[in-house]
Amino acid sequence: MKLNHFLSSGSRRAARVLPAMAALAALAGCSSSAPLFAPDGRPTTQVQCPAAGTWDACMQHARGMCGGAFDVVRQTTGGGVRTLLFACKAG
Fold first, then answer.
1. Domain of 70, in residue numbers
2. How far lies 12's CA from each of 5, 19, 40, 57, 84, in Å?
């Protein structure tokens, strides 16, 4: 009986949390990872956007993170995802 209660309680919690997480991911549109460093020492950031979209979605995300200009370090597409590695220009 207690196991049933635990499972149903966890299911209810998951039913509340998972839609919220999905909504947050949908709003973000892209994801980012921890900074790496370019050869010149500038920190870089990697963002991933759906491959079904355009590169513009990733570019706009990078512009927003940098507050303007940035340099593209690498662009790849694979597994249904576009990956952009960029470094913000010094300002």
1. 2-88
2. 11, 12, 50, 35, 37
Encoded tokens for 17: 């949390």
| Cα dihedral 35/37/43/48 (nearest 10) | -40
Total domains in the chain come to: 1
pTM exceeding 0.70: no
Residue from 86, 26, 27 nearest 55 by CA: 86
For residue 52, give every residue at least 6 positions away whose Cβ sits within 8 Å of its Cβ, in sequence order, or none. 80
How far apart CA 47 and CA 49 sit, in angstroms, is 7
| Per-residue confidence in pLDDT tens, the chain, 91 aa | 454 544 455 555 545 544 444 433 443 455 555 558 888 999 999 999 999 988 999 999 999 999 999 999 999 999 999 999 999 998 6
- What do you get for the CA distance between the two ends of the chain, in Å? 63
